[in-house]
Each structure stands twice: as C-alpha cells, then as structure tokens.
Amino acid sequence: MMKVDPAKKWSGPMRPYDLVKEIVVAIVVIGLLACGLAALFSSPDEKAVTLKSWVTAAPADFAQVATGELAGTTGSAGYGAPYNTAAKGQHFGFIKLQDWAGVRIPINPANSFVVEPLLISNDATAIAAVNTWKAATADQRGKWANAYEGALTKAGDKTTLPDPNNSFGPVPAMIDGLSMMAASGALDGALLTSDSTLPTNFTKPMLFLADSDGYFGALATKQHLGGDQWGVMNETGSWPGQSWLWLFSFWYQIDPFKSSDNADTIIMLIMALLTLALMFLPLLPIIRRIPYKIPVHRLIWRNWYRSPASKQ
Amino acid sequence: MSSQSWTGRARRATLEKFKPEDLLPEEQPAYVASWVYVFGVATIAALVMLIASGLVLTLNGPAWWHTSSVGHYVNSVHLWSVELFFVFMVVHLWGKFWMAAWRGRRLATWITGVVAFMASIMTAFTGYLIQTNFDSQWIASEAKDGFNSMGIGAYFNALNTGQAILLHVSLLPLALGGIVAWHIILVRRKGVVPPIDNDVTIEGSSK
Ligand code: HEM
Known about the structure:
The complex is a heterodimer.
Chain A: E1 14-16, H1 19-41, H2 51-57, H3 59-71, H4 97-101, H5 109-119, H6 124-135, H7 138-155, H8 171-184, H9 186-192, H10 203-210, H11 213-222, H12 246-251, H13 263-279, H14 290-293, H15 296-300, H16 302-306
Chain B: H1 6-13, H2 20-23, E1 27-29, H3 38-60, H4 64-67, H5 69-98, H6 107-129, H7 134-149, H8 161-190
Helix pairs in contact in B: 3-5, 5-6, 6-8
The structure holds protoporphyrin IX containing FE (HEM).
C-alpha cells in the first residue's frame, strides 16, 4: 500500500471531476424528486384549535378546567417558572435551571384566564360575580372553587350546576360567563390582545388550552402525538415528522425517565452531553478507532483499493 | 506596502489562502470515486430546494398555504425537501464517520458539520412551530416544557409564534447557510481526506 500523510496535499494520481456539473445535476434530480414526492404524498394540515372550538366541542371539560384555573389545580396554575412561583420546577440534583431563571413571563391563571377577561365583557351577571370573588379572602375563594371543581368533576358532562348548599359562591356565574365568552370567540381575542393589540404571541390562550387533557390532550393522543407515543417526532396523520429527533424522543419511552417528574431537564441534559460527544467524537478514545476496527471503509473505497495505483 | 493594514491582513487571511483552482478544481484524487461522496452534494441540493420553496412560502405569508392549493403544494415540496435533506445529511454523517474523515487536521470540518446538523434541527423545529395548525400548537405546548426545564423558556418561547416565525425565516437559515459555506470551504481548502489504508499515521492499516 502507498502511504501518505493525510495532513499534506495529495500527490498521488488524480482523476477528472466536474464539481459544478455534479451540483447542477444534483439540484435537478433532487428538485424533481421533492416535487414528485410532494405531488404523490402531499402534506398534513390539521386545523388549529381555539378556546371557541374547545368550549363548543367539550363544554363540560372547558367548565372543569376553567374552574381548575380558579382553584389553582391546573398544569399552568401549578407550573412555576417562568410563569409563576407555584412550584419549584424541574431539577437534576442541585442543578435547578428552571427555578434559577425565575419568573420572566408572569401569568396568574385565575386572573389572566378568568377574572380579567370577564371584566372586559358586557356580561353584568358575570361582572357582579367577579366583584364578589375579588372582595373575598383567598381562603374563601379557594373553598368555593375547589367545591365547584369537585362537583363538576363528579357530575361528569354537566357544564353548570345548581348550588343547593350555597358552597360555590360566585364561581358558577363566573364559569357560565366565561363559557359564553369563549363560545362567542371573544375569549380568544381577550387573551390574545391582553398584552398587545396586534398580537403574534399565543402564550396565554395556548397555556389555557394546554391545561385541557380532555380536549386538547385527547386530540393529540388520537393523532398519536402523546409524549409516551414518540410524540416529539411524530406528525399528524401518517406523515413522517421530525424523525431526526428519535434519540430525544426515545428517552421519554423508557424508565426511569418516563415516570420522572424531572424528565425534561434530565433528557435535555443528556442530549446536550451527547451533542458535545458527537462534536468532539474525533477526540474520543476507543470510539474514534471504530472506523479502523470495523472496516466499512474497505467497502466505500473498494474500487480504489483494488486499483494498482493505490499500491504503488 | 500592504504589510500592516487591516485590509491587507484581511486579504491574506482569506483570499490569498485560496488558489482559484483549489476552490473550483477540475480534478480530484483518484480515490474520490464512491457513491458516498454524493451525499454531501445531495444535502446541498436539498437545501437549495428548501430555500427556494421556503422563499415562496415566505413571500405569501404564514397562513397562505391553508387556503390556497398552490400554497399547499409548495408546503408539501418544502416538507419533502426537509425529509430528503435530513436523510442525505445523516447518510453523509455516517459515511464521514466510517471514513474517519476527521484525519489530517480535518477536525474543524467535522465540527462545522455537527454544528450544521444542530442548526438544521433547530431550523426544522421552528418550521414545525410555525405551521399555524394543530400540529404546531401541540408541538409548541409540549416543547415549552423542555425549554422551561432548562431555564431558557422565556428567551425562546415556543408559544410565541411571532418569535418562531422570525427565527425560522431569518436568523436560523442565515446561520445555517453561513455554517454550511464554512464547512464546504474547509473541505476545499484541506482537500478530500485520503483512504484509511493509505494513511501513514494509522498503525496496521494495511494488510
Ligand atoms: C447541512 C449539512 C451538511 C452539508 C450541506 C455538507 C456538505 C458537505 C460536502 C458537499 C462535502 C464534500 C463532499 C463530500 O465529502 O461529501 C462535505 C464533506 C465533509 N462533511 Fe459535510 N455536510 C453537512 C453536514 C455534515 C455533518 C453533520 C458532518 C459530520 C458530523 C459532516 C462532516 C463532513 C466531513 C468530515 C467532510 C470532509 C470529508 C473529506 O475530507 O473527505 N458534514 N460536507
């Protein structure tokens, strides 16, 4: 075999090679391939959902989740940073990145999703109820909201309930008002425009929507997009999604990550570490020698190795 | 004359490092004869298709493709170009791994490749966020937990569609284009790595 220093310019035999022709042919062939695949298989476009479509399709779920926002029992009410201080957030040992970053997008779900929108509505009954709510102590509010949430959950698919024992306070009137507002589409607008009159930021309506397992979560599960269904890399329907995220998605399928409250932090840290490993792979002992030990290169360069020129 | 001026230094650090025939040579070493070499170029070709279809989508705004059949087709071309782009890139990555193509001071080529891979993943991800349909809503609501858990969710807010749109159509493609250009210039500059069995630095590489 001929031996050369790979850091030096090659001084062995050459062959003609037309780089420009290669790239032009590649663009034409791959362009045709992409256009052909697009014509054959199209692309998915499952309509976006709104607070309006939610309350229309699943009014009882909407009432339960909205009451949960008042009771402080939903995902966003108990989230922690960057929205509020309701929880410490995820951590890995002493690494508490979520908590350290602090509250940067302050959102109090009871106020942001229920109280404030109702105050800008035209609904006198609901506004009177909100004023009763605001005048009450935090303790009293919690009792009302918890009682009503419990009763709604027990009732299953009821959207509103009578209050024979006087234990729900103004909550049923507030939730009725909010449901009406949502059904008219006004709630989507109210949450969207609360920070900016020409909005491009969907944080508030999306956080509210994402608190619904019964509607939003169920739609995703139906489309096999759940976190435990390789959802990170799937696409609606049967189209290929971000399959390159398979390794990221993989960790969510197995224990101990699957059942960990800190799965996101731990998996993000693992992936950051693996990315660094890939980046500096040429420096890693053992791994950098794999291509010498498992000689796939004999296949790749088989024509060259067979040629007399390689042996001179 | 040119000795210490910044302009002279800039020229020596860039233009004078390359001879025109190194940048666009008409010959390659005789061992550059394998289907594996096609995948780097195929990745560029898919990237060209991505940018072309992406520009058409951009010019018409993010909601166009929901209502126009032409728009939907252009979106499909964009999607399938992404899928091809990643398939080609991953084959390219594995090819370069089995060729140990980082030998002979080519570490920077490998690293710029990995950075291009990461930039591509972020670009594709923000693309999925700005579909403005159910899939993008779901991805955003799931992904926010990942970013929040790392303390970066307020700076990169997956629920802020406006931010995702700007990242996807400006910052990220520019960064990706820049890193790919750097990657390719490095390859041209160093020349294609010689085969493992011809490498004098590897013991026992020939039988
Ligand atoms: C956007 C993504 C990428 C593009 C457009 C791209 C393009 C190219 C092209 C055109 C070449 C020269 C022809 C060839 O050897 O195939 C090349 C070489 C190379 N690429 Fe990439 N690449 C990309 C990503 C990567 C990745 C992810 C890696 C590995 C982690 C990588 C590692 C390399 C190496 C080490 C070489 C030098 C090969 C040699 O000297 O023989 N590239 N790339």
